[in-house]
Q: What sequence folds into this?
């Protein structure tokens, strides 16, 4: 499936290694094969340290790093670039916005828009998860702020989660609080981290956990003082990169392939479910009320 | 699938929302639509507080609330009535008999009876579980006494389990102690609460756990002093009811549908397995011995 | 499926109770039906105490009880003999070599050999696991030394694991450290013991855990001082044997059958995967380097 001559760059995510063409086109003729050291976009800043093979990915979309269609697209493209860059073996994901890792899916993308827009948005959410959960790179979430709903999903999809121990920062899949339902693959990802019982209870209550409680439940792997977060993330990354890539990647695929395959097999159905659900007037109303509440709280 | 005009009452359990006709007939003409406040039956007392939307269901079948065919039938019908009552959003299940929540399946129903009786009995056990595990209502078990075998299954099928912290009260799926085997859906329900390893060990040893140990394993969610049990159950219920019903119900279905579907798909096979197993002379003998032992212990 | 006249001896492992002929031929005419009290082989010493029904199986293949083809074959045959011996209800598995339980699969069997040899070796690994994980007997691992990789799998396949509390003894599926990948049924067995999250992290890092950490993760069930290990193993065995065999065996089958079936269904494919992987020059090279390192460390 890889065009001749670009094999070294051809490293699609684990979930479609066999089935799909390489996710990005080969570099244009004349461009050097060794790619970007740093690329800044609108919403995410990416820096690759080629000596260590570790990229730092920082969300910088104030006020709350919400996962808009634009943000998700940039996120997927950034991951894809790194995935295809032989010099990059791992990514640390963190936030450049104080007190917030990511607030999750952007509600304005789900409110008062066309069916076509909902479909495009949801496909972008799926794409991001497929790419992140199925990444061949080592992915470490350095959670330096609150991380509800889709923000929590981003963290859950990494290989390892380190959180600032500040009890004011909370994390969880709190969709139910907004009257909406996490899709099955959010749920599956969650169950694989915290087990069925905690997920069942937590998803129904839309629980957000302060960092210490999140750690107790296994939702995050480690807590450190906020000022030590990046140092710790780098140390954990070094530990994971000490292993041979090939064996680690095959092992990761073995652990995650069933879930990735499940979404790939039901992708259109999942989009239709989302559209049907989100188009309901009762759901639209409850999202509008939630946005009103957010606005009032801010002012 | 709902006859016109009765839609508001039509709320089948989650596991057959799409596939089956509403579980109860519409109310007879002339009867008021707003249903029962309290209905007392032979073996279970039910009281609905319409202001909170919470029903209290109390097992009152001395000496040990054993799950006889009659008890199971009444239990299923009571759940069905509440499920179809728009005023009811949650049920607290507890016992009116001191020191015992429920002793589990009534052994006399499994001893020296006809094949037809075994089939009817087992179908009633299945029906109760399908209805309770798949309930759209919030279900809280307030476990105020011991709860072996089928009694434990009732508790495991609820959304949340609070137990009196008395270490003399024990709970567990102890079928193996009697020489019998918990069916696959008891096992599946158990695994979803405590995980595979604890279930594997516990089911093989037929372990009964004192309340503190049960709490440590996650078999129950919380322990409180016995005199605070109902107060705590009401508080937990209020917390669950603070969430929008629709999102919570869809989430519950997402978590439990696979298990419910599995029994629905293998229901007749499961009945036949039960009949074959229970009809063996060796099993009959060991159940008779167990009943003898219970009688002696009593006198 | 059992030839007439030998029914009492006919007890195939749980995973093929229905489908296959009895795993061993009936005893030759003229031989007494009550078999071996003790049989010593080259690499494993087996002693059966007929009064308790408990066999002691001791690995005695210095220096490190590595699972060579010869060892695996002897191990499978020993289990088969005990399985078919009505006098035997349980096995305690331990090591006669100080400080090591088993070092896992013998790397020399995977290095520089023919494809036919790899196939034969891998089939023997599968056979051992099918027999041990699916055993109808109660199996207790008394882990009196380190137990990496395949040694850990042997322990994980038992019903209960007791480990000497010496923190110098470590245990884990550390295949990734050697640049190789644990097959899916190692992974499944591991997930069923420690859950998905711990397995995912642990397998990717190839983690070896000192005994106390292994206990904390649930990888072993209990720690005891080394001098109490055998006493404790006997006590645990007695506790498991207090249950009626039939119910316990059916329960064990219910818990483990899905995994056993999965390997049985993909056995040839799994062998081919192993051969393809192990035949790669990069893998061969990394195994040779590992062996060099072991040799140097020794001298």
A:
């Amino acid at each position: 499936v890889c065009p001749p001559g670009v094999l070294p760059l051809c490293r699609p995510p684990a979930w479609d290694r066999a089935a799909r063409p390489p996710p990005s086109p080969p570099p244009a003729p004349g461009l050097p094969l060794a790619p970007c050291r740093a690329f800044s976009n609108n919403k995410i800043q990416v820096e690759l340290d080629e000596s260590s093979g570790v990229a730092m990915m920082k969300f910088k979309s104030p006020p709350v790093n919400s996962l808009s269609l634009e943000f998700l697209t940039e996120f997927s493209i950034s991951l894809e670039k790194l995935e295809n860059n032989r010099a990059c073996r791992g990514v640390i994901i963190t936030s450049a916005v104080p007190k917030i890792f990511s607030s999750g899916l952007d509600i304005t993308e789900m409110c008062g828009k066309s069916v076509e827009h909902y479909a495009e948005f949801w496909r972008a959410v799926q794409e991001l998860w497929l790419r992140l959960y199925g990444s061949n790179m080592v992915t470490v979430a350095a959670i330096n702020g609150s991380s509800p709903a889709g923000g929590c999903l981003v963290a859950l999809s990494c290989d390892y989660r380190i959180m600032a121990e500040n009890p004011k920062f909370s994390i969880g899949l709190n969709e139910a609080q907004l009257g909406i339902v996490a899709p099955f693959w959010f749920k599956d990802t969650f169950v694989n981290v915290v087990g069925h019982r905690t997920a069942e209870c937590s998803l129904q209550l839309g629980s957000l956990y302060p960092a210490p409680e999140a750690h107790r439940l296994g939702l995050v792997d480690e807590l450190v003082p906020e000022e030590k977060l990046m140092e710790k993330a780098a140390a954990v990354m070094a530990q994971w990169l000490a292993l041979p890539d090939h064996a680690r990647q095959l092992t990761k695929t073995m652990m995650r392939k069933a879930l990735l395959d499940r979404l790939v097999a039901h992708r259109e159905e999942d989009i239709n479910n989302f559209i049907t659900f989100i188009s309901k007037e009762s759901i639209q109303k409850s999202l509008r009320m939630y946005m009103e509440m957010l606005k009032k709280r801010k002012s």
